[in-house]
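Can't paste images in this forum, so I'm doing it all in text. The chain is below; anyone willing to post the predicted structure tokens underneath?
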Amino acid sequence: MNNSYNKEIIKKICPSVKKIKLYKNSVIYKDGNDKKWVLKDLEENNIIEIYNYLNSRGFDYVPKLEYCDNNVYVYEYVNDTPTPKEQRASDLIKLDALLHNKTVYYKDISLDELKEFYENIDNVITNTFNYYDDILTSIESRIYMSPSEYMLARNCSVIFSCLNFCKSNLDDWYEMMKKKTKQRIVFLHNNLDTNHIIRNDGNVLISWNKSKRGLPIYDFISFYKRNYDKYDFNELYKEYLKKFPLLDEERKLLFIMLFLPEKINYQENELLNTNEVSRLCNYLVITDKLFMENEAKNTEKQNHEVDE
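Text version of the structure:
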């Protein structure tokens, strides 16, 4: 963010500007009537097109837009009402489901596109399997294991079970999708965060810079992976489905993506490595619980136990 440039823009938009304050990736300023406005860099998306599209679909949970050019945009600052974080997460998920409900449409999909999508995910599963298989082979050859290596060795069955689940269900998903010629597409916020919902007279979603069109499951996946241990996602998942029920193939793909383990980023600090392994195992167990409570009846059960 070019602060000197943005100050010039603010003075141009609001000659009576009183106070300018930098806040994270935004600039907040007051006009002559002490009314607050927020200026942000435009980045890649055309915010005017986004606002016009959302308005055309009846989704008006966005702040009032005051100014926009090729570099920045300005919207009305909305005072936020202090709210418990769990309530904010609930409101965020409901608003995201409403966004998807208002913007959903069916898009033609060819068998070639479907096959490419399938092969990309299948390659990730295979590469992840080989990655952990190589690590465990190396660990088993050592006389003494470090704490992180011991923890990983004790819980390797969890990782490989999840990878096998992903592979098996990906094949099932592919067979389901080969019979279809269309798939659902929605407008994704693509940056869900409890700091991006403002609660006042009505809920408002901010930070639309990364928004795009895509499969409806992507917003939930990104929010879950960043916050899986902070909120009751069993309830959040149910709240989302009430406002935007997922199709069978979408639910299957959702849990394939959720169960796919991330690769551990090993460092020289053993404490950090142990925390990373612990975090991965905790993530998979929490995800398994979410699956068992909501989707296990529809497919083969997962049953993992993790050694502390």
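Confidence is low (pLDDT under 50) at residues 300-308. The longest helix spans residues 111-140.
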